[in-house]
Amino acid sequence: EVQLQASGGGLVQPGGSLSLSCTASGFSFDFDRLVVGWFRQAPGQEREAISCVSSGEGSTYFSNSIQGRGTISRDDARKSVRLVVDNLEPEDAAVYFCAARDILSILGGPACGARWGHLPMDYWGKGTLVTVSS
Questions:
Q1: Residues 22 and 3 sit within 8 Å (Cβ to Cβ)
Q2: Taking CA atoms, which of 48, 51, 63, 111 is between 20 and 30 Å from 69?
Q3: In what order do the strands lie in the sheet with 70-75?
Q4: What 3-state DSSP class applies to 105?
Q5: Sorting pLDDT into bands at 50, 70 and 90, what band is 106?
Q6: Tens digit of pLDDT for each residue in 119-133?
Q7: Cα–Cα distance between 129 and 2 in angstroms, integer?
Q8: Are the C-beta atoms of residues 130 and 98 closer than 8 Å to each other?
Q9: Given pLDDT bands bounded at 50, 70 and 90, which one contains residue 110?
Q10: Residues paired with 81 in a beta bridge
Q11: CA atoms within 13 A on the CB side of 72
């Protein structure tokens, strides 16, 4: 069974850093075929794609909401992706989800970019709650 496991949520103070990990298991193909990223959804808000990373072409994407504060990396050998968001603000409080789409189904242009978040995802992890409070 294919699974994406997200970890690293919890309580973070304003101005602090958030580190989230997404680890995959159960795949019958190489992990590097997946474009993996993160969405978040705050109460009463729409779900927002905030970041993604591809393997071969090495492209990354950050939404305007975390641009300049986010770093994303992947370790294909460990089948994991890590997102760090610095200088957290109360507006960053949300449930964060990792998700992935097979690169072979992303045609035309960079596999990871603004449009990635608008594509149907092939795999979703369970959400992890992030609270920003002092």
A1: no
A2: 111
A3: 3-7, 18-25, 80-85, 70-75
A4: helix
A5: confident
A6: 999 999 999 999 999
A7: 22
A8: no
A9: confident
A10: 22, 74
A11: 25
Q: Which two tokens stand for residue 16?
A: 């602090």
Q: Which residue has the tokens 């997200």?
A: 6
Q: List all residues 6 or more positions away from 43 whose beta carbon is below 8 Å from its beta carbon.
A: none
- In a 13 Å sphere around the CA of 115, the CA atoms on its Cβ side amount to 8
Token pair, residue 49, equals: 């794609």
Distance, CA of 75 to CA of 119 (rounded, Å): 23
Nearest to residue 21, comparing CAs of 91, 88, 86, 72? 72
**pLDDT above 90: residue 27:** no
Mean per-residue pLDDT, 32-57: 95
Beta carbons within 10 angstroms of residue 29's beta carbon: 9
- Mean pLDDT for the chain? 94
